[in-house]
Specification:
It holds the Pfam family AMP-binding. InterPro entries: AMP-bd_C_sf, AMP-binding_CS, AMP-dep_synth/lig_dom, ANL_N_sf. GO terms for molecular function: ATP binding; long-chain fatty acid-CoA ligase activity. With 555 residues, the chain is of the alpha/beta class. The protein has three domains: 196 residues, Rossmann fold (3-Layer(aba) Sandwich); 85 residues, Luciferase, domain 3 (Roll), CATH 2.30.38; 128 residues, GMP Synthetase, Chain A, domain 3, CATH 3.30.300. Helices cover 36% and strands 21% of the residues. The chain has 18 helices and 27 strands. Helix 11 packs across helix 12. The protein starts with 7 loop residues before the first helix and ends with a strand.
Length: 555
Amino acid sequence: MADAFQLPLDAFYHREARHPDKCYLVQPLPDGSLERLSWAEVGEQARRAAHWLRTRDFPPGSHIAIISKNCAHWIITDLAIWMAGHVSVPLYPNLTAESISHVLEHSESVLAFIGKLDNWPSMAPGISDAIPTVAMPLHPEGRFDFSWSDLQACSPIQDSPSPAPDQLATIIYTSGTTGLPKGVMHNFGNFGFAASNARTLFSVTEDDRLLSYLPLCHVAERMFIELSSFYGGPTVFFAASLDTFLEDLKRARPTVFFAVPRIWTKFQMGVYSKMPAERLDFLLKLPIIGPVVGKKVLTGLGLDAIRFALSGAAPVPEALLKWYQRMGLDVLEVYGMTENCGYSHVCRPGKYKKGWIGQNSTGVEARIADDGELQVRSGATMQGYFKDPEKTAETITEDGFLRTGDKGEQDGEGNLRLTGRIKEIFKTSKGKYVAPSPIENRLAVHSRIEQVCVVGDGMAQPMALCVLSETGRQDAANSSRSELESSLVKLLEEVNAQLDQHERLQGLVLVKDTWSIENGFLTPTLKIKRNVVEDTYSSRFAAWSDSRQPLVWHD
């Protein structure tokens, strides 16, 4: 099965030979200029770095870390590691020193590439003196054992290595909403299977433009940006920073774009901050003016050239999908996990079904277990967790199906609907089970709610902790507060009317905090860490519940 598709390095060599002078990577530099690298230049730099890596005399298949935000040389470094016969271990660029130390030690990394980072002084202590460091072209101030120029002083390797499908390519450490991260092992065959088949679903071509801004160390961005560039040949633009994100987006004007739901919500909130939701909704309903307004909004966001818009990592509220549809943009949901290269289910264009994600991706088998868990099997399934055979055995069944941990159902056409996480389902004090995710999705339709987490383990009734958007916070601080409160109480009533008695919310709690990656409430892929939310506010749960108020302001 593995030899029926092209493997990643072979796909890169094909692109490099097909259009060596075509612009491949566009990197913003600190001085505001842009570095444009052709396929030939990327190949040459990777080959020089691979030569240097070979001179280090590491055992074949050694593990080499990449600690950097997204940048052109992240991809070049990954290519070099593979060409030299080693395994890349990407780390999130915002980990604590303690987490870095854990991953480097657990992964047995022998070398670390250090690139574009925002808070290097707090991260550096996590790297043992026994692990040599290489400074990539965009790197923080500090002392490193080697520089990129040292690597580029080597002559390019003359061969074009082609690792076997079963050779380990990478160990991806999960961001994890609970506990220590696990090292997911993927071989070249996993990547080749997923990338080759994904290209048949969404034909990324040499004429396309992609914007890389979600962490490349995460499997979704790795597949969507790095692997799809090898297989399709598009030009990849990089975002300079969060502050310049909209500017970067407008420069790239991507034709294929992937985001997580929180990003799609952020775009909407940004539009609403400039134009009240009611006025925009009114204009969009007008027969002739509506499409023009929608196009203008998309142009303002840099999303006007998109052929395919994709969303993954968490469910998208139905109302948000409809909002983009009215703008003239169909956002298609995708579903997958680190453990299967993010390749599992996707909504095909024209096959959208309300409330459902989409159909099995090509070559993927899916089944629903007796306890309602979705299980999937394909050539993209991981080789296991590094140094954790026990956890591997718990996660992969004897017949090769991956236990996703998600509860779901499929219809006769293969459409998938997720109904919650098996481990996130909690039991109220009345002995009734509640799945929080579907309730959260119903609440997230409100234009002033940016994040929501439903809690209720051991409580008489669940309640929802909500973080207001920036506009919502402004409303709360001025004369619009009473109007905001009324709309939120109305939302609560509407949602409760759609829920079973045991699921109905006691009330909404508007927390004063913002939930971010920096303060530990979100994973690097912007998922809410439920355990952190519960640990932070649990001492107040009883008082909030006893108040019997539909709306509680967290002071």
